[in-house]
Protein backbone atom coordinates (compact mmCIF):
# COMPACT_ATOMS: atom_id res chain seq x y z
CA UNK A 1 0.00 0.00 0.00
CA UNK A 2 2.83 2.42 0.86
CA UNK A 3 6.56 2.03 0.38
CA UNK A 4 9.02 4.45 1.99
CA UNK A 5 12.70 4.54 1.04
CA UNK A 6 14.26 7.77 2.30
CA UNK A 7 18.03 8.15 2.16
CA UNK A 8 18.18 11.52 3.90
CA UNK A 9 16.49 14.78 4.85
CA UNK A 10 18.37 17.95 5.79
CA UNK A 11 17.53 21.48 6.89
CA UNK A 12 20.43 23.51 5.59
CA UNK A 13 23.59 21.76 6.76
CA UNK A 14 21.83 19.79 9.48
CA UNK A 15 20.81 16.27 8.53
CA UNK A 16 17.61 15.39 10.38
CA UNK A 17 16.73 12.00 8.89
CA UNK A 18 19.07 9.24 7.81
CA UNK A 19 18.17 6.07 5.89
CA UNK A 20 14.54 5.11 6.56
CA UNK A 21 12.93 2.24 4.69
CA UNK A 22 9.68 0.42 5.48
CA UNK A 23 6.33 -0.57 4.01
CA UNK A 24 2.76 -0.48 5.29
CA UNK A 25 0.34 -3.04 3.86
CA UNK A 26 -3.35 -2.47 3.17
CA UNK A 27 -5.29 -2.75 6.43
CA UNK A 28 -2.12 -2.61 8.56
CA UNK A 29 -1.61 -0.06 11.33
CA UNK A 30 1.98 1.00 11.98
CA UNK A 31 3.06 3.34 14.78
CA UNK A 32 6.23 5.41 14.69
CA UNK A 33 7.41 5.96 18.23
CA UNK A 34 10.15 8.32 19.32
CA UNK A 35 11.06 11.26 21.56
CA UNK A 36 9.93 14.81 20.86
CA UNK A 37 12.04 16.60 18.26
CA UNK A 38 13.54 13.46 16.71
CA UNK A 39 11.89 14.06 13.32
CA UNK A 40 8.63 12.09 13.48
CA UNK A 41 6.49 14.92 12.11
CA UNK A 42 9.09 15.66 9.42
CA UNK A 43 8.89 12.03 8.33
CA UNK A 44 5.09 12.16 8.15
CA UNK A 45 5.17 15.38 6.14
CA UNK A 46 7.44 13.69 3.61
CA UNK A 47 5.20 10.62 3.39
CA UNK A 48 2.11 12.82 3.05
CA UNK A 49 3.71 14.68 0.14
CA UNK A 50 3.78 18.02 1.99
CA UNK A 51 7.59 18.15 2.13
CA UNK A 52 9.18 17.20 -1.18
CA UNK A 53 12.74 18.28 -0.34
CA UNK A 54 14.31 14.99 0.65
CA UNK A 55 16.48 12.29 -0.87
CA UNK A 56 14.73 9.03 -1.68
CA UNK A 57 11.32 7.92 -2.77
CA UNK A 58 7.82 7.41 -1.34
CA UNK A 59 5.21 5.37 -3.21
CA UNK A 60 1.70 5.78 -1.79
CA UNK A 61 -1.92 5.29 -2.89
CA UNK A 62 -4.02 7.99 -4.48
CA UNK A 63 -6.49 8.49 -1.64
CA UNK A 64 -4.96 9.75 1.56
CA UNK A 65 -6.28 11.48 4.69
CA UNK A 66 -4.21 13.29 7.30
CA UNK A 67 -5.10 14.06 10.92
CA UNK A 68 -2.67 16.65 12.30
CA UNK A 69 -1.74 17.41 15.93
CA UNK A 70 -3.84 20.57 15.70
CA UNK A 71 -7.19 20.18 13.94
CA UNK A 72 -6.80 21.97 10.60
CA UNK A 73 -10.43 22.96 10.25
CA UNK A 74 -12.03 25.74 8.22
CA UNK A 75 -13.09 28.20 10.95
CA UNK A 76 -15.63 29.98 8.74
CA UNK A 77 -17.55 26.77 7.90
CA UNK A 78 -19.87 24.65 10.01
CA UNK A 79 -18.84 21.18 11.19
CA UNK A 80 -20.93 19.61 8.43
CA UNK A 81 -19.44 21.86 5.73
CA UNK A 82 -15.92 21.11 6.98
CA UNK A 83 -16.60 17.57 5.77
CA UNK A 84 -18.56 18.19 2.56
CA UNK A 85 -16.29 20.98 1.26
CA UNK A 86 -13.21 18.78 1.52
CA UNK A 87 -15.00 15.81 -0.08
CA UNK A 88 -16.86 17.18 -3.13
CA UNK A 89 -19.88 15.09 -4.05
CA UNK A 90 -20.28 13.64 -0.56
CA UNK A 91 -23.99 13.83 0.32
CA UNK A 92 -24.91 15.82 3.43
CA UNK A 93 -26.54 12.68 4.83
CA UNK A 94 -23.23 10.79 4.64
CA UNK A 95 -21.36 13.67 6.30
CA UNK A 96 -24.01 13.79 9.02
CA UNK A 97 -23.67 10.03 9.51
CA UNK A 98 -19.92 10.47 10.10
CA UNK A 99 -20.58 13.22 12.64
CA UNK A 100 -23.06 10.90 14.36
CA UNK A 101 -20.50 8.10 14.35
CA UNK A 102 -17.92 10.21 16.21
CA UNK A 103 -20.50 11.51 18.68
CA UNK A 104 -20.96 15.11 17.52
CA UNK A 105 -24.00 14.73 15.29
CA UNK A 106 -25.77 17.44 17.25
CA UNK A 107 -22.93 19.90 16.48
CA UNK A 108 -23.34 19.83 12.68
CA UNK A 109 -24.32 23.52 12.44
CA UNK A 110 -21.66 24.80 14.85
CA UNK A 111 -18.38 26.37 13.76
CA UNK A 112 -15.01 24.98 14.91
CA UNK A 113 -14.51 27.89 17.30
CA UNK A 114 -17.70 26.84 19.09
CA UNK A 115 -16.37 23.33 19.69
CA UNK A 116 -14.07 22.09 22.45
CA UNK A 117 -10.64 20.73 21.48
CA UNK A 118 -11.95 17.19 21.90
CA UNK A 119 -14.92 17.93 19.63
CA UNK A 120 -12.61 19.52 17.04
CA UNK A 121 -10.47 16.37 17.11
CA UNK A 122 -13.61 14.29 16.55
CA UNK A 123 -14.54 16.48 13.59
CA UNK A 124 -11.05 16.09 12.10
CA UNK A 125 -11.38 12.32 12.50
CA UNK A 126 -14.83 12.30 10.88
CA UNK A 127 -13.51 14.36 7.97
CA UNK A 128 -10.58 11.98 7.47
CA UNK A 129 -12.73 8.85 7.34
CA UNK A 130 -15.51 10.44 5.28
CA UNK A 131 -13.29 10.20 2.20
CA UNK A 132 -12.76 6.43 2.63
CA UNK A 133 -8.97 6.82 2.42
CA UNK A 134 -6.65 4.04 1.34
CA UNK A 135 -3.99 5.55 3.60
CA UNK A 136 -4.61 7.33 6.91
CA UNK A 137 -1.79 9.40 8.41
CA UNK A 138 -2.11 10.68 11.99
CA UNK A 139 0.39 12.98 13.70
CA UNK A 140 0.02 12.68 17.49
CA UNK A 141 -3.80 12.91 17.29
CA UNK A 142 -4.35 12.44 21.03
CA UNK A 143 -1.83 14.97 22.36
CA UNK A 144 -3.04 17.76 24.72
CA UNK A 145 -6.26 15.93 25.60
CA UNK A 146 -7.33 15.13 29.16
CA UNK A 147 -7.21 11.39 30.00
CA UNK A 148 -10.96 10.80 29.61
CA UNK A 149 -11.14 12.56 26.24
CA UNK A 150 -7.97 10.82 25.04
CA UNK A 151 -9.51 7.45 25.95
CA UNK A 152 -12.69 8.32 24.04
CA UNK A 153 -10.66 9.38 21.00
CA UNK A 154 -8.56 6.22 21.14
CA UNK A 155 -11.70 4.07 21.19
CA UNK A 156 -13.26 6.02 18.31
CA UNK A 157 -10.11 5.76 16.23
CA UNK A 158 -9.75 2.06 17.00
CA UNK A 159 -13.34 1.39 15.91
CA UNK A 160 -13.10 3.47 12.72
CA UNK A 161 -9.84 1.80 11.67
CA UNK A 162 -11.38 -1.63 12.29
CA UNK A 163 -14.45 -0.69 10.24
CA UNK A 164 -12.75 1.02 7.27
CA UNK A 165 -9.40 -0.87 7.25
CA UNK A 166 -7.12 1.77 5.69
CA UNK A 167 -3.37 1.38 5.77
CA UNK A 168 -2.63 3.52 8.82
CA UNK A 169 0.56 5.26 9.84
CA UNK A 170 0.60 7.26 13.03
CA UNK A 171 3.16 9.05 15.10
CA UNK A 172 3.10 9.14 18.87
CA UNK A 173 5.46 9.48 21.81
CA UNK A 174 3.14 7.36 24.00
CA UNK A 175 4.02 3.66 24.13
CA UNK A 176 0.52 2.73 25.36
CA UNK A 177 -1.15 4.39 22.34
CA UNK A 178 1.21 2.60 19.97
CA UNK A 179 0.62 -0.79 21.59
CA UNK A 180 -3.13 -0.32 21.56
CA UNK A 181 -3.63 0.79 17.96
CA UNK A 182 -0.71 -0.61 16.01
CA UNK A 183 -0.01 -4.07 14.67
CA UNK A 184 3.64 -3.01 14.32
CA UNK A 185 5.76 -0.39 16.10
CA UNK A 186 8.83 1.31 14.58
CA UNK A 187 11.26 3.32 16.73
CA UNK A 188 12.71 6.54 15.32
CA UNK A 189 15.93 7.38 17.15
CA UNK A 190 19.32 8.98 16.83
CA UNK A 191 20.79 11.98 15.04
CA UNK A 192 20.25 11.87 12.14
CA UNK A 193 17.20 9.82 12.99
CA UNK A 194 16.81 6.29 11.65
CA UNK A 195 14.39 3.45 12.36
CA UNK A 196 15.40 0.80 14.85
Describe the structure.
- The mean pLDDT is 92.
- This protein has a 6-stranded mixed β-sheet, with helices on both faces. Strands 1, 2, 3 and 5 form a 4-stranded antiparallel β-sheet that branches.
- It has helices at residues 40-47, 79-84, 92-101, 117-130, 147-164, 175-181, and strands at 2-11, 14-17, 20-24, 29-33, 55-59, 64-67, 135-139, 167-172, 184-189, 194-195.
- The longest helix has 18 residues, at 147-164.
- The chain contains 6 helices and 10 strands, in the order ββββαββαααβαβαββ.
- The protein is an alpha/beta fold.
Describe, in short, the structure shown:
The protein has 196 residues and is of the alpha/beta class. It has helices spanning 40-47, 79-84, 92-101, 117-130, 147-164, 175-181; strands spanning 2-11, 14-17, 20-24, 29-33, 55-59, 64-67, 135-139, 167-172, 184-189, 194-195. The two termini are 21 Å apart.
Amino acid sequence: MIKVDITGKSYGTTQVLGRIAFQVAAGETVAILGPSGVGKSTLLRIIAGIDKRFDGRVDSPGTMAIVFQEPTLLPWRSALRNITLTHPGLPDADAQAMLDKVGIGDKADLFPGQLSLGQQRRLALARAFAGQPDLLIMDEPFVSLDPATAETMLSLTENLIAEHRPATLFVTHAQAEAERLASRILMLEGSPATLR
